[in-house]
Amino acid sequence: MEYPFSPSPESPVLVVGAAGVDIVGSLKGELHMGTSNPSRIRSSFGGVARNVSENLARLGQPVRLLTAVGEDEIGERLLEQVASAGVDVSATLRMPEQPTGTYLAVVDSRGALQFALDDMYIASNLSPAYLQSHYNLFKDASALFLDANLSKETLRKAVSLARRARIPIVADPTSAALAGKLRPYLSKMDLIVPNCNEAGILCDRMIDASKRRQTLEAAKCLVNQGVELAIITLAQYGVCYATSQTSGHIPAIRTEIIDPTGGGDALTAAVIFAMLNEIPLDDAVRMGVSAATYTLRYSGAVVPDLTLEKLYDRLII
User: Mean pLDDT, to the nearest integer, of 208-217?
Assistant: First the structure.
């Protein structure tokens, strides 16, 4: 297939969306409601947009992050950390009266997410006017990535500016609760990367991740709504993908799951990188699966020593 992306690895990817701190509790046994549960608890920096931007930077792709954090110690440390990875954060909003966003998750002893809470209200400060004031960043970008933590009005403005700048648009639905906000823009999406539940929301159907025919039909459903390339992540069942010309399934790489946070973000970043560097579609998706697997084995949202060479080492042939 011909990619919707023009090869432009030297131009920065513009990433717009949430950044915050992740607090993840890994249960040591079964979950018992109404009482304290022995767990291993870790914290690290996260947020879908922040994770994607750091992964891109660690793969060597120039990237700019438009996000909002509080004028607090966590926000300061977050920006220092992501900047040290190579991300340009010079346009970040600092909000003096709001705390930096937080994501709280509980995973079972097998690494599967049980439930999660997020407070990303600060992302609402990423207004249409704020994006308009940074239109020059859209014009200079090779692609736009956005997550669904943005308000409906800001999503509309982001898509409009990207279309005006004639750059491809990549989106992550972020959660089942937020996925529906992307529905009006599917016909303008060059790449969308939902999980199985999010794809079900966008396609108005129940999807069983273990049934390949259902998942491929869901990917084709997104393409029929105008998406150029749809990749649906299926946890232990791998990923499926579809374009108007082709479709396929890539199995998961068998691995121990230390922490499920950030795996999908690593996959998205790797696929964006591959597309900007003219790597064939099937190999691009395999690179994404490799990146996700590598991240699942790390206790944190982004592997700090991620490299292209390490992705190739884990590539499914």
Answer: 94
